[in-house]
Every structure is written in C-alpha cells, then in structure tokens.
Amino acid sequence: MGRHAKPKPDPELPDDVDPADALLLEPYLRRRQPPLRGRRTHQPVGGGAMHVRSTEQRILLRWNDFEYEVVGIADNLTEAQQWAAGANG
C-alpha cells in the first residue's frame, strides 16, 4: 500500500485540544471562520451595491464567531470603510 498524508490539524487550536481530536473539530472550526467579507463589514441601509450612493448611511456588521451582528450605523461610505479597517473601534 502507498503512503497517505494525514490531514494536519488547524494551527489555531487551543493548547488543551489533543491533536487526535483536532480532526473531529475541524468542521466546527471551519464554520467559525468569517465568510470572505472579513470580520468587519458594512452594507447600505437601503440595500444595493456597496459602491454606489456613497452619502447613504451604512449598517456596520461584526463577525462574532458564528454570524454577523449589527453594531452600529455609519453616516456615509467613508466612515464605514474607516470603521471596517479598524480605525474607529
């Protein structure tokens, strides 16, 4: 039989997790990763594309390890982008 590579456990596992159990936890840990938008994001209050109508208010969203939650409202696109970049808390 040929050699098979074992999947490597996630390097961000807590120290008290046994590496043998890491494979069992992998699907759970993968679900806790934010979608491609990142940990902080924003979207227009009225919906639509994020780059149009830059003077409209934006809903500020933060990833809490399970889903996005609303944490505030920015007055315009510039303020929302600054918040998403981490400039305003």
Give descriptors for this structure.
three-stranded antiparallel β-sheet; 24% helix; alpha+beta; 89 residues
What does this structure look like?
Helix content is 24%, strand content 20%. With 89 residues, the protein is of the alpha+beta class. It has a domain at 40-84. The protein is elongated. The termini are far apart. The relative contact order is 0.14.
Q: Specify the helix fraction band.
A: 10-25%
> Order of helices and strands, N to C?
HEEEH
Write down how many β-strands occur, each being a DSSP E stretch of 2 or more residues. Answer: 3
State which percent range the strand residues make up.
15-25%
Class per helix and strand makeup: alpha+beta
Overall residue-averaged pLDDT value = 77
Count of helix runs:
2
Biggest sheet overview: 3 strands, antiparallel
Rg (CA only)? 19 Å
Quaternary assembly: single chain
Global morphology: elongated
Structure in a nutshell:
The protein has 89 residues and is of the alpha+beta class.
Secondary-structure blueprint:
Layout: H1 19-31, E1 40-44, E2 58-63, E3 68-74, H2 77-84
Antiparallel strand pairs: 1-2, 2-3
